[in-house]
Amino acid sequence: MTDDVIRVFLVDDQELVRAGFTMLVDSQADMRVVGQAGDGGEALEKIQVTASDVVLMDVRMPRLDGVEATRRLQSLPQAPKVIVLTTFDLDEYAFAAIKAGAAGFLLKNTPPADLLSAIRQVHSGDAVVSPSTTKRLLEHFAGALPDAEVERPDLADLTAREREVLVEVARGLSNTEIAKLFTLSEATVKTHIGRILAKTGLRDRVALVVLGYETGLVKPNK
Question: What pTM did the predictor assign?
Fold first, then answer.
């Protein structure tokens, strides 16, 4: 296996689902399935001895669910990136997994091409946030979100433009869309996002989405 091949690890308690993902992933020239597990506990054991780049993680599994498995994975040295796979009725688990350190989340019925694209994006360092999925996730537990903005000390350090960019990131806009909205170059938008991450101490775009909603900067129905 060459260095440019993305090493994918599958975690799902349904063998048929893993078989389908294996066929899909292995059909690509730039990625290979290097291992699989039927629950989070087995995944933790195997991933520690299996070099992996990206983990496709189901959220509800026996023994150890995807949320706790994701949290524990992030404590490993050179931890792989995790993409959480969820269904609509398990959205609260997906959101918890994002907070635990997942780099993205997708619905299980995501088109194959979009899933493959997500694997490549996460591997390259980007986070995967589906605006439609985000909206459903947040509306699902909207009652737990603040009615008004909750100020955090690190938010006070943001410039007016950085705050505006943060809001649009939380709404699910891409860098291209944000650049067009504010008449900026994409490079400038990337710079703003990098500064926001540095000031807030957050790891990626997904964490910024969580921050935007948890602090009330963005409302689920807007």
Answer: 0.71
